[in-house]
Amino acid sequence: MGKLERHATIADVAALAGVSVGTASKALNGRGSLREETRMRVREAARQLSFEANAGARSLHSGRTYTVGMITTDTIGRFSIPVLMGAEDALGAGEMSVFLCDGRDDPIREQYYVKTLLSRRVDGMIVTGRRTEARAPIGANLPVPVVYAFISSADPGDCSVVPDEAGGARKAVEHLLAVGRTRIAHVTGPEHHNSARVRAAAASERLAEDGLSLVAPPLFGGWSEVWGRQAVGILLAGRAEFDAVFCGSDQIARGVCDALRAAGRRVPQDVALIGFDNWDVMTEACQPPLTSIDLDLEGLGRSAAEMLLAAINGSPSPGRHAHPCRLVVRESTTVPLT
């Protein structure tokens, strides 16, 4: 009996063309703003590999359904929706479809969705949520690959794609140092929260590299504007001289900004202010507009989906993969030229 022919996948086309899976999908489906040279290179790669763009034909040949399940515990959707958008972009219209399931932090509901997705013969799953700390694996010995996005699996053998929060905190401190601020305070969320601890520790470590330290121990509290206002009262009462505040979230930073203004401290002339998350609802409403660290959740979702596609095609990437954050500079840290 002859050996079954392996049919080319979108990942094969992307590899031959030297582009990402998302870019290859856009080129073949006429989506996105791509250079014509890139589109032609992808189409030529598809021709060389005899890539079949028809999903039904591919399914008959491969036994795959070209569907992926996505399970989230983020009922608000503030974190999971950008991750989903990035994942869908990489999976590609007409290439892979996504079933979205809301687990609502209920283990029983979550396991029901796992069984339902497997009964629908999905080719893989992406698991996401609203917190970055490790969680128990969604299942043992599942018959399809699973990638954890934004959250991580406690099993180091699983593939997890998480934001590089420590790297983001370092970028925040480096920016403040670059604009001449050296007396930096840090106001963040609850101490039991993994993100608060990671960001605070990274900020302190980066300052120590320059022989500096925070003007006061990190102030842990809530992820809220109310806590931001209260924290400014604590800093002023402690008489610690500070010329910058790095906040663990944009919500906290907006509260800090309001309290500084009420106390007669100008932002950024007297105190430079930087947040974390780059949540537009907060950064744009803040006066002045808030400099922040962007988690690049859509990019993280794309990376997770590309790793899932690679795993589906036999090339898994076990372990924890840190996705870089980026600095977005606005007027809260830069004095406008007059």
From TrEMBL:
One protein family per Pfam: Peripla_BP_3
InterPro entries: HTH_LacI, LacI/GalR-like_sensor, Lambda_DNA-bd_dom_sf, Peripla_BP_I
Any one Gene Ontology molecular-function term assigned to this protein's record: DNA-binding transcription factor activity
CDD domains, A to Z: HTH_LacI, PBP1_sucrose_transcription_regulator
Key words of the record: DNA-binding, Transcription, Transcription regulation
Leader peptide range in chain numbering: none
Source superkingdom: Bacteria
Domain HTH lacI-type per the UniProt entry, residue ranges: 8-62
SMART domains linked: HTH_LACI (SM00354)
Protein name listed in UniProt: Transcriptional regulator, LacI family
Species for this entry: Microbispora rosea
